[in-house]
Amino acid sequence: MARKPIIGGNWKMNTVRASAVDLATSVSRDAADALDAGVEIAVFPPFVYLDAVGDSLRRAKSPVLVGAQDLYFEQPGAFTGEISADHLRDIGVKIVLVGHSERRHVIGESDDIINKKLHAALGAGMRVVLCIGETLEQRERGETDAINERQLQAALRDIETKDMADVVIAYEPVWAIGTGRNAAPSDAQAAHAHIRRVMYELFDADTAAAMQIQYGGSLKPDNADELFAQPDVDGGLVGGASLKAADFVAICDAAAKRLQQA
Ligand code: PGA
User: How high is the pLDDT of residue 258?
Assistant: First the structure.
């Protein structure tokens, strides 16, 4: 069976309450064709607007998923400022980003923390988008596959095969995020194919074949077609272009086109 493409809109530290609700409303309305075609769509607003965005999508009976950009791995307790999996579940959040490059490289999150966050989210019954990817220096040293493999091994330590059905992988080369410089489709394909091989080695053939692997990094309406045409690219995680409903929906439509061609 063909894998469903999944498109995520990572709004990062952007939007205010009214623009967040507006953006989600426009996406759910204008992406109806892509949703009907079988594309999965998720938006990831800032924590403080999850409830408002989730409510507006529920009221519209929209299948667009509302997701969180992060979570903390501990059980509820004395962790000032953090948000637990229980909090997210309580407000109907069913999908969460873990290990985004800005968490790794700006906030300084370690592989060990990312692994704990994966366990916490999956343990709470949520889906996880696990983000991985190499820096420019690592790419120039020819280490792309080795870095992806190391990040996967570390993040997925002690995760059971059955739980992998709730994991999506987002391959986001750090040098492509927010730079306007996307990976060449053939380079993205090579990295995705290697990630799928690692899934086979760490888990099994079924897990590898079913794994949705998104591309992320300067994904735009004008490069989505050629990236999504690659056999191992199953949609994308979109930052900048997800803040404009028309651009985000155009990317969702590009993913739908691939399904129709399959
Ligand atoms: P970008 O961000 O599309 O702005 O490059 C992608 C991401 O960080 O998920």
Answer: 84
